[in-house]
Amino acid sequence: MTTSQPQRIVFRQKQEVELESFDLPTLQPQEVQLRCQCSLMSTGTENIVFNCLFDKGTHWDNWVKFPFYPGYAAAGIVEAIGSDVTTLQVGDRVGYRAGHSSHAVVNADACYMIPKEIPSEQALWFALAKITFQGAMAAKYSLGDRVLVIGAGPIGQMSLRWARVAGAKKVFVVDPVAERKDIAITGGASAYFATPANDAREGILQANNDQLPNVVIDSTGHPAVFAVALDLADRGGRVVLMGDTGQPASQTLTGDVVMKGLTITGAHDGHKYLDWDEAAITSLFFTMVRDGRFNLDGLNTHEFTPDQCVEAYTVANRDRAQTMGILFNWK
Predict the structure, then answer these.
(1) Are the CB atoms for 178 and 152 separated by under 8 Å?
(2) Which residues are registered as beta bridge partners of 146?
(3) Which distant-in-sequence residues (6+ apart) come within 8 Å of 138 by Cβ?
(4) Are the C-beta atoms of 179 and 153 separated by less than 8 Å?
(5) Distances in Å between the alpha carbon of 13 and those of 10, 181, 313?
(6) Same domain, 101 and 75
(7) If I label 145, which of 30, 33, 106, 126 is the partner at 20 to 30 A Cα–Cα?
(8) Residue among 236, 197, 230 at smallest CA distance from 216
(9) CATH number of the domain encompassing residue 48
(10) Whose CA is closest to 197, among 171, 230, 164?
(11) pLDDT for 300
(12) What CA dihedral angle connects 6, 120, 245 and 131, to 10 degrees?
Protein backbone atom coordinates (compact mmCIF):
# COMPACT_ATOMS: atom_id res chain seq x y z
CA MET A 1 0.00 0.00 0.00
CA THR A 2 1.49 3.36 -1.02
CA THR A 3 0.06 6.68 0.12
CA SER A 4 1.51 10.08 0.94
CA GLN A 5 -0.93 10.61 3.81
CA PRO A 6 -0.84 8.22 6.79
CA GLN A 7 -4.02 6.17 7.14
CA ARG A 8 -5.53 4.08 9.93
CA ILE A 9 -8.55 1.90 10.63
CA VAL A 10 -11.18 3.32 12.97
CA PHE A 11 -14.41 2.07 14.54
CA ARG A 12 -16.66 5.12 14.28
CA GLN A 13 -19.46 3.51 16.25
CA LYS A 14 -20.66 0.03 17.05
CA GLN A 15 -20.27 -2.12 13.92
CA GLU A 16 -19.04 0.83 11.82
CA VAL A 17 -15.47 0.62 10.47
CA GLU A 18 -13.62 2.71 7.91
CA LEU A 19 -10.19 3.87 6.80
CA GLU A 20 -9.25 7.45 7.64
CA SER A 21 -6.31 9.78 7.04
CA PHE A 22 -4.44 11.29 9.98
CA ASP A 23 -1.39 13.35 10.84
CA LEU A 24 1.59 11.82 12.58
CA PRO A 25 2.72 13.48 15.81
CA THR A 26 6.06 15.28 15.95
CA LEU A 27 8.94 12.87 16.45
CA GLN A 28 10.38 13.17 19.96
CA PRO A 29 14.05 12.48 20.84
CA GLN A 30 13.38 8.98 22.23
CA GLU A 31 10.96 7.94 19.47
CA VAL A 32 11.07 6.36 16.02
CA GLN A 33 8.80 6.75 13.02
CA LEU A 34 7.66 3.48 11.47
CA ARG A 35 6.16 2.46 8.15
CA CYS A 36 3.93 -0.55 8.65
CA GLN A 37 4.30 -3.68 6.55
CA CYS A 38 1.46 -5.66 8.13
CA SER A 39 -0.72 -5.73 11.23
CA LEU A 40 -2.59 -8.58 12.91
CA MET A 41 -6.23 -8.42 13.94
CA SER A 42 -6.93 -9.66 17.46
CA THR A 43 -10.21 -11.30 16.53
CA GLY A 44 -11.34 -11.88 20.11
CA THR A 45 -10.70 -8.40 21.49
CA GLU A 46 -11.59 -6.51 18.34
CA ASN A 47 -14.86 -8.37 17.81
CA ILE A 48 -15.91 -7.70 21.40
CA VAL A 49 -15.22 -3.99 20.85
CA PHE A 50 -16.70 -3.88 17.32
CA ASN A 51 -19.97 -5.46 18.49
CA CYS A 52 -19.99 -3.93 22.01
CA LEU A 53 -20.29 -7.39 23.55
CA PHE A 54 -19.80 -6.32 27.15
CA ASP A 55 -21.87 -5.44 30.18
CA LYS A 56 -22.24 -1.96 31.59
CA GLY A 57 -19.77 -1.21 34.37
CA THR A 58 -17.12 -3.71 33.22
CA HIS A 59 -13.58 -2.63 32.38
CA TRP A 60 -14.56 -3.09 28.72
CA ASP A 61 -17.29 -0.49 29.16
CA ASN A 62 -14.79 1.93 30.70
CA TRP A 63 -12.16 1.29 28.01
CA VAL A 64 -14.17 1.33 24.79
CA LYS A 65 -14.93 4.85 23.65
CA PHE A 66 -15.76 5.78 20.07
CA PRO A 67 -14.04 6.60 17.83
CA PHE A 68 -11.96 3.53 18.72
CA TYR A 69 -8.69 2.63 17.03
CA PRO A 70 -8.28 -1.18 16.99
CA GLY A 71 -5.16 -3.30 16.75
CA TYR A 72 -2.02 -3.81 18.81
CA ALA A 73 0.41 -5.94 16.80
CA ALA A 74 2.37 -4.66 13.82
CA ALA A 75 5.61 -5.18 11.93
CA GLY A 76 7.31 -2.42 10.01
CA ILE A 77 10.40 -0.55 8.91
CA VAL A 78 12.08 2.31 10.78
CA GLU A 79 11.81 5.45 8.64
CA ALA A 80 13.22 8.06 11.04
CA ILE A 81 14.81 8.13 14.50
CA GLY A 82 14.79 10.71 17.27
CA SER A 83 17.96 12.46 18.33
CA ASP A 84 18.43 10.30 21.45
CA VAL A 85 17.85 6.92 19.80
CA THR A 86 20.93 4.69 19.67
CA THR A 87 19.42 1.19 19.56
CA LEU A 88 17.79 1.39 16.11
CA GLN A 89 18.69 2.61 12.65
CA VAL A 90 16.69 3.66 9.62
CA GLY A 91 15.83 0.53 7.67
CA ASP A 92 15.60 -1.80 10.68
CA ARG A 93 12.62 -4.19 10.69
CA VAL A 94 10.80 -4.33 14.01
CA GLY A 95 7.73 -5.58 15.78
CA TYR A 96 5.79 -3.01 17.78
CA ARG A 97 2.47 -2.37 19.47
CA ALA A 98 0.21 -0.01 17.55
CA GLY A 99 -3.21 0.14 15.96
CA HIS A 100 -3.91 -0.79 12.35
CA SER A 101 -2.19 2.14 10.63
CA SER A 102 0.18 2.76 7.73
CA HIS A 103 2.59 4.71 9.96
CA ALA A 104 3.24 5.10 13.66
CA VAL A 105 5.47 7.02 16.04
CA VAL A 106 6.45 4.97 19.09
CA ASN A 107 9.10 4.87 21.77
CA ALA A 108 12.24 3.15 20.51
CA ASP A 109 12.33 0.94 23.60
CA ALA A 110 8.97 -0.52 22.56
CA CYS A 111 10.33 -1.81 19.22
CA TYR A 112 11.72 -5.33 18.87
CA MET A 113 14.18 -6.28 16.15
CA ILE A 114 12.83 -9.10 14.01
CA PRO A 115 15.42 -11.77 13.11
CA LYS A 116 16.03 -11.95 9.37
CA GLU A 117 14.90 -15.59 9.31
CA ILE A 118 11.37 -14.73 10.47
CA PRO A 119 8.88 -13.24 7.98
CA SER A 120 7.03 -10.16 9.21
CA GLU A 121 3.75 -12.03 8.79
CA GLN A 122 4.89 -14.53 11.45
CA ALA A 123 6.68 -12.04 13.67
CA LEU A 124 3.32 -10.29 14.15
CA TRP A 125 2.35 -13.03 16.58
CA PHE A 126 4.79 -11.63 19.16
CA ALA A 127 1.99 -9.67 20.84
CA LEU A 128 -0.30 -12.69 21.29
CA ALA A 129 2.75 -14.70 22.37
CA LYS A 130 3.38 -12.13 25.09
CA ILE A 131 -0.26 -12.19 26.21
CA THR A 132 -0.38 -15.98 26.40
CA PHE A 133 3.01 -16.08 28.12
CA GLN A 134 1.14 -14.46 31.03
CA GLY A 135 -1.15 -17.50 31.01
CA ALA A 136 1.83 -19.84 31.03
CA MET A 137 3.28 -18.03 34.04
CA ALA A 138 -0.08 -18.19 35.82
CA ALA A 139 -0.31 -21.91 35.05
CA LYS A 140 3.06 -22.51 36.74
CA TYR A 141 3.85 -25.40 34.42
CA SER A 142 5.98 -28.26 35.68
CA LEU A 143 7.61 -30.99 33.60
CA GLY A 144 5.10 -33.71 32.86
CA ASP A 145 1.95 -31.64 33.41
CA ARG A 146 -1.27 -32.79 31.77
CA VAL A 147 -2.78 -29.71 30.11
CA LEU A 148 -6.14 -29.01 28.54
CA VAL A 149 -6.66 -25.92 26.40
CA ILE A 150 -10.31 -25.06 25.81
CA GLY A 151 -10.68 -23.11 22.59
CA ALA A 152 -8.44 -23.31 19.52
CA GLY A 153 -8.62 -19.71 18.36
CA PRO A 154 -5.51 -17.49 18.34
CA ILE A 155 -5.22 -17.35 22.15
CA GLY A 156 -5.76 -21.10 22.49
CA GLN A 157 -3.27 -21.90 19.73
CA MET A 158 -0.56 -19.82 21.35
CA SER A 159 -1.40 -21.19 24.81
CA LEU A 160 -0.93 -24.79 23.70
CA ARG A 161 2.46 -23.91 22.20
CA TRP A 162 3.66 -22.38 25.47
CA ALA A 163 2.49 -25.47 27.35
CA ARG A 164 4.39 -27.71 24.96
CA VAL A 165 7.69 -25.80 25.13
CA ALA A 166 7.33 -25.56 28.93
CA GLY A 167 7.56 -29.34 29.21
CA ALA A 168 3.97 -30.55 29.44
CA LYS A 169 3.67 -34.29 28.93
CA LYS A 170 0.37 -34.01 27.09
CA VAL A 171 -1.57 -31.04 25.78
CA PHE A 172 -5.18 -31.66 24.80
CA VAL A 173 -7.25 -29.14 22.86
CA VAL A 174 -11.04 -28.94 22.80
CA ASP A 175 -12.89 -26.87 20.22
CA PRO A 176 -16.06 -27.69 18.27
CA VAL A 177 -14.49 -26.35 15.05
CA ALA A 178 -12.90 -29.35 13.34
CA GLU A 179 -11.05 -27.13 10.84
CA ARG A 180 -8.75 -25.90 13.60
CA LYS A 181 -7.41 -29.38 14.34
CA ASP A 182 -4.50 -29.40 11.88
CA ILE A 183 -3.15 -26.08 13.19
CA ALA A 184 -3.35 -27.37 16.76
CA ILE A 185 -1.61 -30.66 15.93
CA THR A 186 1.10 -28.72 14.08
CA GLY A 187 1.56 -26.65 17.22
CA GLY A 188 2.08 -29.71 19.40
CA ALA A 189 -1.36 -30.81 20.57
CA SER A 190 -1.40 -34.45 21.75
CA ALA A 191 -5.05 -34.84 20.78
CA TYR A 192 -7.83 -32.61 19.47
CA PHE A 193 -11.48 -33.05 20.39
CA ALA A 194 -13.80 -31.41 17.88
CA THR A 195 -16.69 -31.10 20.29
CA PRO A 196 -18.13 -28.63 22.78
CA ALA A 197 -16.12 -28.69 26.00
CA ASN A 198 -19.00 -30.11 28.03
CA ASP A 199 -18.97 -33.21 25.80
CA ALA A 200 -15.21 -33.81 25.94
CA ARG A 201 -14.76 -35.40 29.38
CA GLU A 202 -14.99 -39.05 28.31
CA GLY A 203 -12.64 -38.58 25.36
CA ILE A 204 -10.06 -36.83 27.52
CA LEU A 205 -10.17 -39.62 30.11
CA GLN A 206 -9.76 -42.29 27.43
CA ALA A 207 -6.80 -40.47 25.89
CA ASN A 208 -5.11 -39.84 29.24
CA ASN A 209 -5.16 -43.14 31.15
CA ASP A 210 -8.37 -42.23 32.95
CA GLN A 211 -6.86 -39.03 34.35
CA LEU A 212 -8.16 -35.50 34.03
CA PRO A 213 -5.70 -32.69 33.22
CA ASN A 214 -4.06 -30.98 36.16
CA VAL A 215 -3.95 -27.65 34.29
CA VAL A 216 -6.91 -26.28 32.32
CA ILE A 217 -6.61 -23.14 30.19
CA ASP A 218 -9.89 -21.45 29.25
CA SER A 219 -9.00 -19.30 26.24
CA THR A 220 -12.55 -18.74 25.01
CA GLY A 221 -13.82 -15.73 26.91
CA HIS A 222 -17.25 -17.40 26.91
CA PRO A 223 -18.81 -17.16 30.38
CA ALA A 224 -20.50 -20.57 30.15
CA VAL A 225 -17.17 -22.35 29.66
CA PHE A 226 -15.88 -21.47 33.13
CA ALA A 227 -18.00 -24.07 34.92
CA VAL A 228 -16.98 -26.70 32.36
CA ALA A 229 -13.31 -25.88 32.89
CA LEU A 230 -13.75 -26.49 36.62
CA ASP A 231 -15.38 -29.84 35.91
CA LEU A 232 -12.55 -30.94 33.62
CA ALA A 233 -9.72 -30.15 36.06
CA ASP A 234 -8.25 -32.93 38.20
CA ARG A 235 -8.11 -32.76 42.00
CA GLY A 236 -5.71 -30.08 43.16
CA GLY A 237 -5.59 -28.72 39.62
CA ARG A 238 -5.21 -25.21 38.30
CA VAL A 239 -7.69 -23.38 36.08
CA VAL A 240 -6.37 -20.36 34.20
CA LEU A 241 -8.74 -17.85 32.61
CA MET A 242 -7.09 -16.44 29.48
CA GLY A 243 -10.23 -15.33 27.68
CA ASP A 244 -11.42 -12.02 29.11
CA THR A 245 -15.21 -12.20 29.00
CA GLY A 246 -17.31 -9.11 28.59
CA GLN A 247 -19.96 -10.67 30.86
CA PRO A 248 -18.15 -11.72 34.07
CA ALA A 249 -21.39 -11.79 36.08
CA SER A 250 -22.43 -14.80 33.98
CA GLN A 251 -19.44 -16.90 35.04
CA THR A 252 -20.52 -19.40 37.68
CA LEU A 253 -18.50 -21.10 40.40
CA THR A 254 -19.31 -24.75 41.05
CA GLY A 255 -18.76 -27.17 43.91
CA ASP A 256 -15.67 -28.45 42.08
CA VAL A 257 -13.67 -25.54 43.45
CA VAL A 258 -14.00 -26.72 47.07
CA MET A 259 -14.47 -30.45 46.55
CA LYS A 260 -11.42 -30.78 44.28
CA GLY A 261 -9.34 -28.05 45.89
CA LEU A 262 -8.88 -26.13 42.66
CA THR A 263 -6.80 -23.01 42.18
CA ILE A 264 -8.30 -20.40 39.85
CA THR A 265 -6.21 -17.61 38.42
CA GLY A 266 -6.53 -15.06 35.64
CA ALA A 267 -3.96 -13.86 33.15
CA HIS A 268 -3.93 -10.58 31.26
CA ASP A 269 -1.69 -8.61 28.93
CA GLY A 270 -1.08 -6.01 31.62
CA HIS A 271 0.31 -8.40 34.25
CA LYS A 272 3.99 -8.08 35.05
CA TYR A 273 6.53 -10.64 36.23
CA LEU A 274 10.03 -9.93 37.53
CA ASP A 275 12.61 -10.22 34.74
CA TRP A 276 9.91 -10.87 32.14
CA ASP A 277 8.99 -7.62 30.45
CA GLU A 278 7.71 -7.51 26.89
CA ALA A 279 11.21 -7.20 25.44
CA ALA A 280 12.40 -10.35 27.24
CA ILE A 281 9.31 -12.34 26.30
CA THR A 282 9.51 -11.24 22.66
CA SER A 283 13.21 -12.15 22.48
CA LEU A 284 12.43 -15.63 23.83
CA PHE A 285 9.55 -16.02 21.39
CA PHE A 286 11.64 -15.01 18.38
CA THR A 287 14.42 -17.38 19.47
CA MET A 288 12.02 -20.32 19.69
CA VAL A 289 10.36 -19.48 16.36
CA ARG A 290 13.76 -19.27 14.69
CA ASP A 291 14.96 -22.63 16.01
CA GLY A 292 11.68 -24.42 15.31
CA ARG A 293 10.39 -24.97 18.84
CA PHE A 294 7.46 -22.60 18.32
CA ASN A 295 5.71 -23.61 15.09
CA LEU A 296 3.55 -20.90 13.51
CA ASP A 297 2.76 -22.71 10.26
CA GLY A 298 -0.83 -22.23 9.16
CA LEU A 299 -1.79 -19.65 11.77
CA ASN A 300 -2.39 -16.89 9.22
CA THR A 301 -5.54 -17.71 7.29
CA HIS A 302 -6.76 -14.41 5.80
CA GLU A 303 -5.17 -11.28 4.36
CA PHE A 304 -6.80 -7.97 3.42
CA THR A 305 -5.68 -4.57 2.25
CA PRO A 306 -6.62 -1.74 4.62
CA ASP A 307 -9.27 -0.41 2.23
CA GLN A 308 -10.96 -3.81 2.56
CA CYS A 309 -11.47 -3.24 6.31
CA VAL A 310 -15.28 -3.53 6.07
CA GLU A 311 -14.93 -6.91 4.40
CA ALA A 312 -12.25 -7.98 6.90
CA TYR A 313 -14.44 -7.36 9.94
CA THR A 314 -17.44 -8.88 8.18
CA VAL A 315 -15.43 -12.07 7.66
CA ALA A 316 -14.13 -11.95 11.25
CA ASN A 317 -17.71 -11.86 12.52
CA ARG A 318 -19.54 -13.99 9.97
CA ASP A 319 -16.89 -16.69 9.54
CA ARG A 320 -15.22 -16.63 12.96
CA ALA A 321 -14.88 -20.41 13.07
CA GLN A 322 -13.01 -20.46 9.74
CA THR A 323 -10.58 -17.66 10.61
CA MET A 324 -7.39 -17.62 12.65
CA GLY A 325 -4.81 -14.95 11.87
CA ILE A 326 -6.33 -12.05 9.90
CA LEU A 327 -3.68 -9.75 8.46
CA PHE A 328 -3.84 -6.25 7.04
CA ASN A 329 -1.20 -5.78 4.35
CA TRP A 330 0.07 -2.17 4.37
CA LYS A 331 2.93 -2.64 1.87
Answers:
(1) no
(2) 170
(3) 240, 265, 266, 267, 271
(4) no
(5) 9, 35, 14
(6) yes
(7) 126
(8) 230
(9) 3.90.180.10
(10) 230
(11) 96
(12) -120
- Classify residue 16 as left (phi > 0), alpha (psi -120 to 50) or beta: beta
Which residues fall within 8 angstroms of residue 80, CB to CB, at 6 or more apart?
27, 32, 33, 90
Determine how many CB atoms are found less than 10 A away from the CB of residue 222: 17
Whether the Cβ atoms of residue 100 and residue 45 lie closer than 8 Å to each other: no
**Residue 2: which pLDDT band, with cuts at 50, 70 and 90?**
very low
Same domain, residue pair 132 and 256: yes
Residue 4, amino acid: S
pLDDT tens for 232-248 read 999 999 999 987 788 88
| Start-end of H helices in 233-277 | 256-259
User: Could you tell me the pTM of the whole model?
Assistant: 0.91
State what percent of residues in the chain have pLDDT above 70.
Answer: 99
134 and 251 assigned to the same domain: yes
Asked if residue 168 and residue 103 are part of one domain, the reply reads no
Mind listing the pLDDT tens digit for each residue in 34-49? 999 999 999 989 999 9
One domain, residues 146 and 47: no
Residues 137 and 115 in one domain: no
With left for phi above 0 and alpha for psi between -120 and 50, is residue 188 left, alpha or beta?
left
- Rg of the chain's alpha carbons, rounded to an integer? 20
Residue 171 and residue 149: Cα distance in Å, rounded? Answer: 7
In a domain, 1, yes or no: no
Q: Tell me how many domains the chain contains.
A: 2
**What confidence category does residue 91 fall into, taking pLDDT thresholds of 50, 70 and 90?**
very high
Same domain, 155 and 79: no
What's the confidence (pLDDT) of residue 162?
98
Question: Residue 22 — pLDDT band, cuts 50, 70, 90?
Answer: very high
* Contact between residue 8 and residue 101 where contact means Cβ atoms under 8 Å apart: yes
Alpha carbons 244 and 40: distance in angstroms, whole number: 19
pLDDT recorded at residue 1: 46
Task: Tell me the residue range of the domain where 72 lies.
Answer: 7-125+299-329
Residue 274 lies in a domain: no
